[in-house]
């Protein structure tokens, strides 16, 4: 029932754990955006320990925004308070999406819909001075920008936004890099090396060239790397089951 309520609300750039959508759809959307739009800067963002850090208080507030039936809210509260299983020990607290492999991904999407997705759309409409794209799969996020200034301002604003809702960006896995069809030329003019690469859902994205020297977006992986990435996401959820 929650799927029926929220599926029409979720933003188009959210791909994780949604009916009719999968990792390849997210990858294709990202490739098209980088290849066809004026992307020159990429934020490769990772939300630290997302499913374990979710504020249950905020999550219930978000749910109450769309769900008027108090019985459903009470049932979800029970799920959240059922505890998290870590290394054979059950802990009960006010953080995390609770037990249940079926509902945890959906609750995570609902949380990020209000905390991040709607906010990112508003930021783009009100603050961005150039082109901007967003692609999110669960807690894995890529945001592309035409202008460096927009990218830096968005990254700072996103850090502050997440902290308001008990979340944080992983300090080692979150990066801002120069990337896109103009990145190699711009970096060469400044005496810098080749554009860095970034990874998303098990694929490494590379600023490549055709035989004629034109920009060509390349992505490389082994099938097992992608499966491993998705397996990690699902394993994190299973650790929270009884």
Automatic annotation (TrEMBL):
<comment type="similarity">
    <text>Belongs to the bacterial reverse transcriptase family.</text>
</comment>
<keyword id="KW-0695">RNA-directed DNA polymerase</keyword>
<dbReference type="InterPro" id="IPR000477">
    <property type="entry name" value="RT_dom"/>
</dbReference>
<dbReference type="InterPro" id="IPR043502">
    <property type="entry name" value="DNA/RNA_pol_sf"/>
</dbReference>
<dbReference type="Pfam" id="PF00078">
    <property type="entry name" value="RVT_1"/>
</dbReference>
<keyword id="KW-0808">Transferase</keyword>
<keyword id="KW-0548">Nucleotidyltransferase</keyword>
<protein>
    <submittedName>
        <fullName>Reverse transcriptase/maturase family protein</fullName>
    </submittedName>
</protein>
<dbReference type="GO" id="GO:0003964">
    <property type="term" value="F:RNA-directed DNA polymerase activity"/>
</dbReference>
<feature type="domain" description="Reverse transcriptase">
    <location>
        <begin position="1"/>
        <end position="205"/>
    </location>
</feature>
<dbReference type="InterPro" id="IPR051083">
    <property type="entry name" value="GrpII_Intron_Splice-Mob/Def"/>
</dbReference>
<keyword id="KW-0614">Plasmid</keyword>
């Amino acid at each position: 029932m929650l799927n029926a309520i929220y599926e029409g609300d979720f933003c188009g750039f959210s791909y994780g754990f949604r009916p009719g959508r999968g990792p390849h759809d997210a990858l294709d959307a990202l490739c098209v955006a980088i290849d066809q739009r004026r992307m020159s800067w990429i934020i490769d963002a990772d939300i630290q320990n997302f499913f374990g850090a979710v504020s249950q208080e905020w999550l219930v507030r978000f749910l109450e925004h769309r769900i008027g039936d108090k019985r459903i809210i009470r049932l979800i509260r029970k799920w959240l308070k059922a505890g998290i299983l870590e290394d054979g020990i059950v802990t009960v607290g006010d953080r995390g999406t609770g037990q249940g492999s079926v509902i945890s991904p959906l609750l995570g999407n609902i949380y990020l819909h209000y905390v991040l997705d709607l906010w990112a759309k508003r930021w783009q409409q009100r603050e961005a001075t150039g082109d901007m794209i967003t692609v999110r799969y669960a807690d894995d996020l890529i945001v592309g920008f035409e202008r460096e200034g927009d990218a830096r301002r968005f990254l700072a604003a996103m850090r502050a936004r997440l902290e308001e809702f008990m979340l944080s960006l992983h300090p080692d896995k979150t990066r801002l890099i120069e990337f896109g069809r103009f990145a190699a030329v711009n970096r060469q003019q400044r005496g810098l090396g080749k554009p860095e690469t970034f990874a998303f859902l098990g694929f490494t994205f590379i600023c490549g060239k055709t035989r004629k020297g034109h920009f060509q977006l390349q992505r490389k992986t082994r099938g097992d790397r992608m499966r491993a990435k998705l397996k990690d996401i699902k394993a994190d959820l299973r650790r929270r089951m009884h």
